[in-house]
# Entry
Amino acid sequence: MKPTTLNKYKLIIMVDDRQVVLERILQVTRYRGFLINGMHAEVNTGNNIGTITLSVSSERPISLLVDQINKLIDIKGVEVDNSEELVAASI
# Structure
């Protein structure tokens, strides 16, 4: 098989502290064809705002995923860490 070049991205997602928000983000990520490489989530209990750091990779443009995550309820904002790197992977 021919190796495929995947773009790797790091998303920083600010969310309302709701139980289902993480499930919605993971579902949209999967539907849009992105692989999840890592994740870290924490909540600031003082203001009930959570921060989810999501590392993903795909051949697709990251804007497809960012636009869809921003449409979800309970999302405050999404930032893309610009330190993207290319990764060779076999699909």
Notes: The longest helix spans residues 21-31. Residues 84-91 have pLDDT under 50 and may be disordered.
